[in-house]
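Lab notes, practical 5.
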Amino acid sequence: MRDLNDLYYFVQVVDHLGFAPAARALGMQKSKLSRRIAALEEQLGTRLIQRSSRKFSVTEIGQAYYQHCLAMLVEAEAAQALIDGARSEPCGTIRVACAPGLLSYQMSGLIVRFMALYPELEVQLHSTSRRVDVIGEGFDLAIRVREPPLEQTDLVMRKLDESVHRLVASPDLIARMGTPTGPADLAGWPSLDFGPAHR
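Output from the prediction step:
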């Protein structure tokens, strides 16, 4: 693979119709520019430019090579512009897995605001209680509830929010069962729990 800079220098020499004007435009010494083109010709095993004190000319193969170099430089600039654009404004598709409960009560508003902030992003949201294999199933992000300490993983983890657990009872239940004074008093109380069903 050729050094892209050499192709750029060659295009500049052809565009400016000579080494001296190209060197001035590039802000480099004419001798250095001439050496770079000579080294390129040696690597290619062919002459691209006819050197003469009276007239600047490009060989037939040099003209054809110039067209390809020009196309490569245009593509290189387009590739750089693509990266620059992605840095300034994210675009593409993000696949997100999130538990239904989280999605309903905490994350839905956040995701809507995120999509409004980055309109070029498409969010594919998968509502599932199953613990997905983020890498194996092709997800970019999984939003999960975890109790500390968190397990070791090669994935990047960020804390989005904290939840607080509260033990609550209706006034009717307190009137019927009495006011508890400690955890042991709750052993016989009816309850609604999150988690797998007891068998």
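Observations recorded by the TA: The two ends are 66 Å apart (CA to CA). The chain has two domains: 4-86, 89-179.
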